[in-house]
Fold this sequence. Notes:
This is Maestro heat-like repeat-containing protein family member 1. This protein has 147 residues and is mainly alpha-helical.
Amino acid sequence: QPKKQPPDADDLTSDSVQSISVNTLFLLSTTVDRMNNVLWPYLLEFVTPIQFTNALTPLCKSLMYLAMKKQEEGENASLIRYDLNANIPSPYALTTRLLVVSSQPYVGDCRVMASLRLLHVLHYSVHPALDQLWSKQVPLLVEHIEG
């Protein structure tokens, strides 16, 4: 007769799969140089769909790292090439999604912080005129929420 598993065995399995997936995504984003071109800007496609809300924290962290790496390489002005990537959400969709998520500071696992930080890194790609405003305001929001 097969052994009966405890009722929450499936939950443990899905939690461990989620943890492994999150760690793998972050490791690929931060340690494998050639993955930059594969993951950027492809991961942006997963920011706006509602069904990926629970994945936003690791997604935003990986995207933020990739964006900062591109900026260090001198690609600041054109982080997101909308003309080359038809599936990427528009700057308006990205901004709206990240701001809506940021409006709920006590929901999710640091989702607000990750969303605001990604928004801060992508400010020039959303609209060049946001540079000065977001350079001041977004860090203040992050500081306020952390404090």
